[in-house]
Amino acid sequence: MGSGRSARHRLGTRPALPGGAGRQRGVSLLEVLVALLVLAIGVLGAVSLQTNALRYNASAAYHTQASFLAYDMLDRMRANAGSLSSYALSVNSTCSAASQASSILATDREDFIRAVSCLLPAGYGSVVISGSRATITVGWSEQRIVADGGHTEVVISSLIRGDL
């Protein structure tokens, strides 16, 4: 038994170290650090993707709301086509409380003004009447969504009545 040990030492071999080969010490720690780096980059990518998805979702929601408000106003104007020229207006105000309007026209105008200014961030809009054609513009600020975002607008034009 004693001679077997001395033969190994003479040939330059070492006895096996507990836990693996001597040259591999620290390599598994390096592999773990590289794996953590790759995982961290993946998590940052997923967070960025989620943030952008939420941002674009909010932008799409405002676009949908603006389209709805413009088409709602067109429908109101079609229902009260006799007063079409009186629907021309410009909205550039802050959100205010509702008040009692005296007529259908006044109610329609007030509802549009209040909805644009209250439902959209920095909302603004206009209704332009040219003969029997109405052009409705509804806009809002994208700065709460995108840092360098400006204003976005929805412009809808429609023929309200064909008798003019």
Characterization of this structure:
The chain has 3 helices and 4 strands; from the N terminus they run ααβαβββ. It is of the alpha+beta class and 164 residues long. The chain has a domain at 65-159. The protein has a 4-stranded antiparallel sheet with strand order 1-2-3-4, covered by helices on one side. The radius of gyration is 35 Å and the shape is rod-shaped. The model has no long low-confidence stretch (mean pLDDT 84).
Arrangement of strands in the largest sheet:
1-2-3-4
User: What portion of residues is helical?
Assistant: 40-55%
- How large, in whole angstroms, is the Cα Rg? 35 Å
The average pLDDT value, as a whole number, equals: 84
Return residue spans where pLDDT drops below 50 for at least 5 consecutive residues: none
Strand content: 15-25%
Pattern of helices and strands: HHEHEEE
Task: Identify the overall geometry.
Answer: rod-shaped
Largest sheet: 4 strands, antiparallel
Class by SSE composition: alpha+beta
How far apart are the termini?
A: 117 Å
Number of DSSP E strands? 4
- Number of helical elements: 3
Which key phrases capture this entry?
164 residues; 3 helices; 17% strand; alpha+beta
Give the helix/strand layout.
Elements lengths: L1 H9 L16 H53 L9 E3 L12 H16 L4 E7 L2 E9 L9 E9 L5
Antiparallel strand pairs: 1-2, 2-3, 3-4
Helix pairs in contact: 2-3
Give a summary of the structure in a few sentences.
This protein is α+β, with helices and mostly antiparallel strands and 164 residues long. It has a domain at 65-159. 48% of the residues lie in helices and 17% in strands.
